[in-house]
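User: Quick sanity check before I run a bigger batch. Here is a single chain. Can you write out its predicted 3D structure?
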Amino acid sequence: MRRFHVDTLVAIFLLVFCGVFLAATFSIRETSYASLGAEVWPRVILVFLTVLSLAYFVQSLRREPVERQTPEPRGLKQWFLHHLNAFWCFLWFGLFLLTLPYLGMLVGGMLFVYVTLTSLGRRDLHGHALHAAIAVISVGAMWAIFTYGLKVFLPTGSLFY
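Assistant: Done. Predicted structure follows.
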């Protein structure tokens, strides 16, 4: 009998997670003032996540389990250094949330994406340019979708009001 891969268990968990939350969207009450139902956006995201989780599940069934190649970190310092990238992401996100009332969603989001990519990735001139382009395009596109497409008022910030 073939042993389950850890990715298979994670994919099953994600599929169950998506199914539970997709079922919960059917209990969202309708509002009379909305041009688009409140359940539409969560369903779009959940269907997308379900498709990705299903692809992850199929891919995990095709792969053979591999042995862990990196040893477990021993001691608090090694554990902290092993997970340093995650701590950087939490730090930058916390600072993004603290500066959100001042910088707003658009500027703060762009800075958050740029700083996170730069702290995790390349730090040369090409990397800085690529991170700036990704930050401006991705956050700008999401801001435009929410502001103009969905008519959602995002935080503007007091510095650029």
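The radius of gyration is 20 Å.

User: Great, the batch can go ahead then.
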